[in-house]
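Researcher: Here's a chain I'd like modeled. Treat it as a single chain, no partners, no ligands.
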Amino acid sequence: MNIVCLGDSTTYGYMVNKKKVWTKLLNDKFLEDGKKDIKFINKGINGDMISGMFVRFEKDCINEKADTVILMGGVNDIFSSKPLEKIEENFANIINKANENDIDIIVFTPITFIKEAFTFFECNNLDEFDNVLKEYVDFINDYTEKNNIKFVDVYNIFTDKILKENNYYDIFFDGVHLSDNGHIIIMIYFLMEFI
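Model: Modeled as a single isolated chain. Structure tokens:
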């Protein structure tokens, strides 16, 4: 079974040793458990937008013979001030493309970002970005529930649980990108939800 992980830097593992990215951790775990037929294929691209993921769906998912796609994206669109309606439209287009090609899809909402630790780029409107991100997460939760799509609400898992039990600087290294520990958390929640 090929599980293509389609996303941005959170999927790619920006600034994280490739052996410690959540997709590699899942591959190692399944191999250790004797499930050699399950393979996670990392198709994350740093800085990619959900529109880019739609454009490369055929090459990165269909051509890879994906049985399942894990989709996680949209936050770069928000940071680039793309209209929320356009982000939602591209999200729905990816879901439709997966359905047209009989590919199962699992949606991960984007993770939250830490405003007080945000150093990735200079920005004066983090509150606005945060509000749009919350709206987008609400849209994803509503859309996936109405359309009976598997999803993991990573955003609210982080805000309601992970960040209450851990210091943000143990999980993020710049307020946006996950550290090694953050990738372990993503891997654990995938296993808890679906295995």
